[in-house]
């Protein structure tokens, strides 16, 4: 597939973004452009990217296929030449580890000096405790070993976010809209780790804007709040100005809701349904250092998206 550049020439580090139209990636691109950092995004749809970001002097859009077959990587391999930083966010389950390692290999071979990799706080819960954590740990270990195998300077900075505030917009949205409830199998007062995708993006952007040597092989766990289901329901009630309650349901019913209504694959639905003990279990105290400000609260985030919870 053809690709083209349309950005201004500059001596600044050029950042390449993979996963730039998703929840986190969109904010990364916006924040990089706000800092006037030359940014290239690899997308499957250039028209979708244009709607998200419009025209910007420092933005380059590369349209290419999904990654899988050998030739799917050609566009990426050609277009990443000349960049020094990479933001990497890979979603999905199929060939997850192989795809991520192959992308990292192409990037480091092309001259990328720093890769900011979005992993998961599930890696911190222990050896093979769940599928997501196992996949991400395998990726972390493989990419770290790869980076250290180069004689030239190659760094990987790993971000491990916890549950996103945006999960409310797909995991809880149907029951909030139709039943004025949030539902799960967890104990009502069991606190779970959460963070805003804007803060995850801000942490990534800060690393990408800093000197490469500052962060080296850093690992940053990202949790801004520990909130129970009852506390989330109270915050939702305040922001939406109607009563939202938490309903604890049997774990099998919650699993079936995610599989039948949300169409999640078994391994993801099983992991979410059975995650009832808070994972990492603490707020990341160093977040204000990374962000240069206090992290966004759930209430602040909900205020910015509350119209999306209007009953249909």
From TrEMBL:
InterPro entries associated with the record: Ergot_Alk_Oxidoreductase, NAD(P)-bd_dom_sf, NmrA-like
Which superkingdom is the protein from?
Answer: Eukaryota
Query: Which residues belong to any copy of the NmrA-like domain?
Result: 13-261
Q: Which Pfam families match?
A: NmrA
Q: What is this protein called?
A: NmrA-like domain-containing protein
Instruction: Please give the organism.
Output: Absidia repens
What high-level taxonomic lineage is stated for the organism?
A: Eukaryota, Fungi, Fungi incertae sedis, Mucoromycota, Mucoromycotina
């Amino acid at each position: 597939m053809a690709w083209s550049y349309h950005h201004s020439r500059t001596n600044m580090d050029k950042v390449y973004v993979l996963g730039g139209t998703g929840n986190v990636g969109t904010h990364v691109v916006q924040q990089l452009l706000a800092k006037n950092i030359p940014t290239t995004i690899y997308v499957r749809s250039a028209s979708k990217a244009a709607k998200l970001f419009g025209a910007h002097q420092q933005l380059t859009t590369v349209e290419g296929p999904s990654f899988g077959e050998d030739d799917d990587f050609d566009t990426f391999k050609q277009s990443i030449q000349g960049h020094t930083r990479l933001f990497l966010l890979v979603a999905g389950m199929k060939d997850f580890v192989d795809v991520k390692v192959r992308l990292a290999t192409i990037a480091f071979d092309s001259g990328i000096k720093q890769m900011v990799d979005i992993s998961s706080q599930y890696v911190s819960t222990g050896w093979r405790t769940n599928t997501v954590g196992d996949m991400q740990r395998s990726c972390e270990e493989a990419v770290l070993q790869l980076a250290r195998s180069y004689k030239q300077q190659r760094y990987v900075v790993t971000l491990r976010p916890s549950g996103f505030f945006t999960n409310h917009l797909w995991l809880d949205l149907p029951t909030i809209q139709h039943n004025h409830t949030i539902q799960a199998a967890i104990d009502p007062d069991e606190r779970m780790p959460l963070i805003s995708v804007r803060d995850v993006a801000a942490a990534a952007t800060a690393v990408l804007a800093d000197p490469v040597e500052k962060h080296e092989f850093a690992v940053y766990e990202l949790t801004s709040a520990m909130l129970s289901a009852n506390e989330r329901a109270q915050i939702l009630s305040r922001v939406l100005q109607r009563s939202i309650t938490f309903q604890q349901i049997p774990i099998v019913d919650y699993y079936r809701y995610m599989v039948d209504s949300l169409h999640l694959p078994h391994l993801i639905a099983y992991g979410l349904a059975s995650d009832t003990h808070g994972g990492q279990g603490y707020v990341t105290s160093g977040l204000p250092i990374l962000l240069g400000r206090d992290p966004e609260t759930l209430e602040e985030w909900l205020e910015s998206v509350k119209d999306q919870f209007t009953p249909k």
